[in-house]
């Protein structure tokens, strides 16, 4: 074999050995030669050179890592920290909102479920009532004879006819009342237009200044001309008031005629006609009384009388239209109203015969010795007395001749202070002006009469001279629509009384007629109602504001006192009632009886088709008072 071939084969073997590392030989190998191979030496040298930089690199990495770990944490800026806190707060707020929404959804779901259950219960109750009525009807038909059935059908048919006639009569009465109201408004507008047309102007004054050219003479001319025109305007107003007085005289004459006929009328149609006319004329008389230039204190009793006379006539009309006979009490009420109206007629007829324009001007200027003032003072003190059978709520007319217990120990205020208090009490009415126009001295207390000017018109208030409390308040703007519920009117009245300083008052009587809600509030202590301490409030259902308030009973009677303990339980008092009387509500109360107070249980409920208030003495178990609730065109009333 040639040398070239041998060298080439050796080179191939060395290349192969370099590329493929030798596997570890587990068998004993031959002893290596003393001198290492050249290729192996080169290979070892390269391996050593490669290992050394790798080790140094790893050491450097470890050192860098150690330095980084030892480096202190980076400080967070204040702006970034605030941002992070705001983010956390937003997250908490969002979580809270989500929780509230979830709670509302659950509450809404539970409320819907409860409503569904209530509706189901009502349907079941109505179904049970219908079944009971069908069963009762079957029992009636089973034991009813043919004649009894025919009579029952006739009675039912007649009741429907009577109800329809009563409804028609009421609608006619309402139409007549509305027509009278329109005529009244038209007359007032005409009078206002006449006043405006005859009011003094500046043209004549300016012409006099230019024509005369003398300042003093021009000024004298202006004053004289203005005085003449003012006198003319006062004369026109006196004529308007005189016309109102004659109108009142005519109404009282008509009331006298109708009341005298109602005393003897015994047929249903005639009684319905007369009672309808009495109700309408009473309302007209109340409207005319408000227009007269007389202090409201002089017409208070007369206004109250004609108002309650109208309510009483409406209640009697309702009873007669439903086929009922007038009771002895109602007949006695007609007799009393006839007697009182006849005395009023005598005084007013004499006033109309003797009243001159000078007397009316004196009344307009507030002169107490005027003929008009003297006549109405006679009616106020000697003529009018409201019958005890007419009420607008339990114990609403509880006023005795006693001292004002609630004002004892309080300091007296001045007229200017009364004006300031009026501004404070009625700040929600946007009062632009207050003026104390005098004071009224009565046996029980003395009050300041304050007039208030508001965007809705004029209001009047009586503020006690002792303590500066509001005793009475009236607003003269009419209400003609219903925008507020009775419950909302109660809340409005409670807020109003709180502003006036009358605390712990509870609504014990509500009556509304579609535009006005009349409420009675009584003092409540530890769950006991004190009917002696009562305040009457009138709320306009159109505007949602208080338009009237009267708290004389409260001021005369209220002191802090504890109710005595009852001697019998409510259950024992209930057992004293008529077995057919169905009790709806009951509570403990203190009522005025013959000038004293008695602790009683009040039971409200139904007997047949009528509702009653029955008061049982909590010591003796005897019935002390019984009131029946009647419906009128003005709402509810008691007899």
Based on the model shown, name its key terms:
single chain; 639 residues; 57% helix
Q: What is this entry, summarized?
A:
This protein has 639 residues and is an alpha+beta fold. 57% of the residues lie in helices and 18% in strands.
User: Which class do the helix and strand fractions yield?
Assistant: alpha+beta
Give average pLDDT, whole number: 75
Q: What pattern of helices and strands is seen along the backbone?
A: HHHHHHHHHHHHEEEEHEEEEHHEEEEE
CA-based gyration radius: 48 Å
β-strand amount? 15-25%
Oligomer type: single chain
Instruction: Compute the number of helices.
Output: 15
| Residue runs with pLDDT of under 50 for 5 or more positions | 1-6, 22-36, 196-232, 386-391
Tell how many strands the DSSP assignment holds.
13
Please summarize the sheet with the most strands.
13 strands, mixed
Tell me the layout of helices and strands.
Elements: H1 3-19, H2 38-70, H3 78-143, H4 146-197, H5 203-212, H6 215-264, H7 268-291, H8 296-321, H9 328-354, H10 357-364, H11 371-383, H12 415-425, E1 433-441, E2 446-454, E3 457-464, E4 470-475, H13 486-500, E5 505-512, E6 516-525, E7 528-540, E8 545-550, H14 552-557, H15 570-575, E9 582-593, E10 596-607, E11 610-617, E12 623-632, E13 635-638
């Amino acid at each position: 074999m040639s040398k070239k071939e041998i060298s080439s084969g050796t080179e191939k073997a060395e290349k192969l050995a370099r590329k493929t590392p030798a596997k570890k030989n587990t068998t004993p190998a031959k002893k290596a030669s003393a001198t290492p191979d050249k290729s192996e030496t080169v290979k070892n040298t390269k391996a050593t050179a490669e290992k050394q930089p790798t080790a140094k690199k790893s050491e450097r990495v470890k050192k860098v890592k150690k330095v980084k770990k030892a480096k202190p944490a980076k400080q967070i800026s204040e702006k970034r920290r605030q941002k992070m806190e705001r983010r956390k707060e937003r997250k908490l707020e969002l979580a809270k909102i989500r929780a509230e929404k979830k709670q509302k959804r659950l509450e809404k779901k539970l409320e819907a479920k409860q409503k569904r259950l209530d509706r189901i219960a009502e349907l079941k109750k109505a179904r049970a009532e219908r079944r009971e009525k069908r069963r009762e009807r079957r029992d009636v038909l089973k034991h009813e004879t043919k004649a009894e059935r025919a009579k029952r059908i006739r009675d039912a048919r007649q009741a429907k006819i009577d109800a329809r006639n009563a409804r028609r009569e009421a609608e006619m009465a309402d139409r007549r009342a509305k027509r009278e109201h329109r005529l009244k408004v038209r007359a007032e507008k005409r009078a206002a237009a006449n006043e405006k047309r005859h009011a003094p102007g500046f043209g004549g004054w300016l012409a006099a200044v230019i024509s005369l050219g003398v300042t003093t003479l021009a000024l004298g001319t202006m004053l004289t001309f203005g005085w003449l025109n003012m006198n003319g305007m006062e004369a026109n107003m006196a004529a308007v008031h005189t016309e109102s007085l004659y109108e009142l005289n005519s109404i009282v004459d008509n009331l006298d005629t109708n009341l005298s006929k109602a005393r003897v009328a015994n047929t249903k149609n005639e009684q319905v006609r007369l009672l309808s006319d009495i109700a309408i004329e009473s309302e007209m008389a109340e409207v005319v009384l408000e227009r007269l230039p007389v202090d409201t204190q002089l017409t208070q009793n007369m206004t109250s009388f004609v108002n309650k006379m109208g309510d009483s006539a409406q209640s009697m009309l309702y009873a007669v239209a439903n086929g009922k006979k007038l009771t002895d009490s109602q007949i006695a009420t007609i007799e009393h109203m006839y007697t009182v109206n006849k005395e009023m007629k005598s005084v007013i007829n004499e006033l109309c015969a003797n009243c001159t324009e000078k007397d009316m001007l004196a009344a307009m200027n507030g002169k107490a010795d005027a003929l008009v003032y003297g006549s109405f003072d006679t009616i106020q003190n000697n003529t009018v007395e409201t019958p005890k059978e007419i009420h607008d709520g339990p114990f609403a007319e509880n006023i005795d001749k006693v001292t004002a217990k609630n004002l004892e120990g309080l300091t007296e205020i001045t007229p200017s202070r009364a004006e300031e208090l009026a501004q404070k009490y009625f700040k929600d009415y946007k009062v632009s002006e207050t003026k104390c126009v005098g004071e009224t001295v009565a046996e029980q207390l003395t009050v300041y009469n304050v007039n208030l000017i508001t965007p809705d018109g004029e209001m009047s208030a009586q503020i006690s001279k002792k303590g500066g409390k509001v005793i009475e308040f009236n607003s003269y703007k009419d209400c003609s629509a219903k925008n507020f519920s009775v419950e909302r009117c109660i809340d409005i009245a409670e807020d109003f009384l709180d502003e006036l300083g009358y605390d712990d008052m509870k609504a014990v009587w509500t009556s509304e007629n579609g535009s006005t809600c009349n409420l009675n509030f009584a003092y409540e202590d530890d769950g006991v109602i004190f009917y002696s301490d009562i305040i009457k409030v009138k709320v306009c259902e159109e505007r949602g504001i208080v338009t009237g308030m009267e708290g004389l009973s409260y001021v005369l009677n209220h002191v802090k006192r504890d109710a005595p303990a009852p001697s019998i339980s409510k259950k024992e008092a209930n057992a004293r009632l008529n077995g057919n009387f169905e009790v709806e509500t009951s509570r403990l109360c203190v009522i005025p009886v013959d000038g004293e107070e008695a602790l009683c249980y009040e039971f409200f409920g139904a007997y047949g088709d009528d509702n009653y208030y029955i008061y049982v003495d909590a010591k003796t178990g005897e019935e002390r008072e019984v009131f029946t609730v009647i419906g009128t065109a003005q709402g509810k009333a008691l007899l």
